[in-house]
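Appendix B, Record 12. Input sequence as logged:
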Amino acid sequence: MPHLLIVIASTRPGRVGLPVGQWFERLSREHGGFDIEVADLKELNLPMMDEPHHPRFAQYTQPHTKAWSRMVDASDAVVLVMPEYNHGITAPLKNALDYLYQEWNYKPVGLVSYGGPSGGMRAAQMVKQVATALKMMPLPDSVAIPFVTQYLRDGVFDPPDAIVQAAHAMLDELQRWTEALEPLRRAHRQARVGS
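Logged structural output:
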């Protein structure tokens, strides 16, 4: 079964990202198409890029980079659960993406964005530029959650049916793209092992 890494991109106290991420994790497990792992950037606590070499060389010196590399490398697909800050992505998410290069290659990426009126869509568009530079495939299907706080009840995210349906559609599409890109990931991993 393919391995899905869900990345919770918000790190601030009182964040909405944790309950949204927990909801998406439950939904993904119910979907049944993936083995699931969650990377909470608050728990990972990656410092701002502190590696001396370009990520494409994978010559990591820091234990936190090596651990992050192993986690991302083990995945076949990625979902970013991300807020919108000032019409863009969070600094911790950009930093986490920039730490690595080869580990991201040829993986489909789904986006669960949230915020105010825009539902985080401006941040979602911004992260697509970064993802394609990392040779990832951003899915056309996504989940956008406008006015996200209205769906929080006692710290639990409880969205309406339309958002749940969007998440199911994205997971179905993610499964298709994960399978379609598998030969590229396999060849890429073999080339890295051989080099």
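Residues 3-194 form a domain with the Rossmann fold fold (CATH 3.40.50.360).
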